[in-house]
Amino acid sequence: MTSTTAVSCLSRAPRPDARLRLFCFHHAGGGASFFSSWAARVPSGVDVLPVQLPGREARYREPRFQDAGELVEALARDLAPCLDEGPWAAYGHSMGALVATALATARLREGGRGPEALFLGAYAAPHLTPTLPAPDRYEDRELARLLVDFGGLDPQFLEREDWLRVLLPIVRDDLRICASHARAGLPDPDDERARLPLVVEAFAGIDDPLVDPATVQAWERYTRDFRMALVPGGHFFPRAEPGPFFARLNRSLARLLGEPAPAGPPAAPG
């Protein structure tokens, strides 16, 4: 890959020397900064490209999406120049798992270059009971407390009303994206012929209070080649317990690069 194509949802142009691009999609209420340390943790041939959705961090002035179908359509259009240039994979965490899978499905449906693999973390298969609550189920204080309970918010911010006034509308709009998954164009889990022709590897945190590993296992109904890993940690295991997670992820990335598996601590069986 030699292009230096820049697109609005990436903070920089892709590396021209990369052998594989790894597009990373963040969780509800999060941002691209969730992946800020990943470039130093993956094989050197992999270019980590966090995708920044509008309405937060560096794109905070832009209107946010509330509909999964509209979001995926915009991402497919915005990222097309990068996705067509060479091999790519995607990691999606929590809400990002839904977004990454919908993007891959849209690309394959439209005849574009699909991913070499999808990596999905901390999210139940969409045809099951939703991983995340409905956008208007909780009042602001209840929603903030829920975010603290599963590790998505530092408790000190419960007393920062000014900060919560910024964060909670972002969270609610992202929850609306999750609630609209039926419009994301995902494969029908009841139709074996619709399953994605690629590797999907799903990760579940052993101590995740939101997501039961069995509901993550149910992603197997969306693909022809499914793998599952249980890793130490809660809902945000890549941040709280990175060692075992990256050991497993890097073995899979090395496989895509045609390289020997890197040495490292084994992940929990899964």
Please tell me what the overall shape is.
globular
* Beta strand %: 15-25%
**Count of runs of 4 or more consecutive helical residues:** 7
> Order of strands side by side in the largest beta sheet?
2-1-3-4-5-6
Helix content: 25-40%
Q: What count of structural domains?
A: 1
CATH class: Alpha Beta
Biggest β-sheet strands, sense, barrel: 6 strands, parallel
User: Topology as H/E string?
Assistant: EEHEHEHHEHEHH
Based on secondary structure, the structural category is alpha/beta
Distance between the termini: 34 Å
Produce a short descriptive summary.
With 270 residues, this protein is an alpha/beta fold.
Key phrases:
270 residues; alpha/beta; Rossmann fold; six-stranded parallel sheet; disordered C terminus
